[in-house]
Write a structure and sequence with these properties.
170 residues; mainly alpha; 74% helix; elongated
Length: 170
């Protein structure tokens, strides 16, 4: 398995885990369901852990992708820059969540960190979502803004192939 394949396989885990952890944490805090908060904390720790190999396999994926015709270096750079920010955000979230489940001097610090973890999880999940979107734009041009603008002038929303003329009868 190449680094590019590994990157594509692992990269979804931190994104999905961060969203699941965020939703479970918010729901559990609203319901004052402490076991749910604990599970959410562990999920956010896992998201932080999976983000590390996802980030570091990105370099190998970049080496592969930059040799593919039609791949824009600027798209890779935007994704890479956002990925760096997302990595630090989800690691900070995971570390703070880990602090929430570990006993310090015989006491849980769970109650002290639950809302800061919620805020960080919200920010990290958003950043990871943006990172995933930017990563998708590298190979999936249909995820970019160009398609919407290209089809905006079409009445039926279906663009014509390049070189194909639009019928006035449509």
């Amino acid at each position: 398995m190449t680094q590019a394949q590994m990157h594509l396989a692992i990269t979804h885990l931190p994104v999905v885990l961060s969203f699941v952890g965020l939703i479970l944490l918010a729901f559990s805090l609203a319901r004052k369901y402490h076991p749910g908060v604990t599970v959410a904390f562990y999920i956010l720790v896992a998201a932080g852990l999976f983000a590390i190999p996802a980030f570091f396999t990105g370099e190998g994926a970049e080496e592969t992708a930059e040799h593919i015709p039609g791949i824009a270096e600027s798209a890779i750079e935007k994704h890479e820059s956002m990925a760096s920010t997302s990595l630090w955000l989800i690691i900070a979230t995971g570390l703070l969540a880990l602090a929430g489940v570990v006993k310090v001097a015989g006491r849980h610090v769970f109650h002290t960190v639950k809302y800061p973890v919620l805020i960080l999880a919200f920010i990290a999940s958003g950043a990871l979502g943006i990172t995933a979107h930017l990563g998708g734009q590298i190979r999936h041009t249909e995820a970019g803004p160009g398609l919407a603008m290209q089809n905006a002038g079409d009445e039926d929303g279906i663009g014509k192939a390049e070189g194909e003329e639009k019928d006035d009868d449509d």
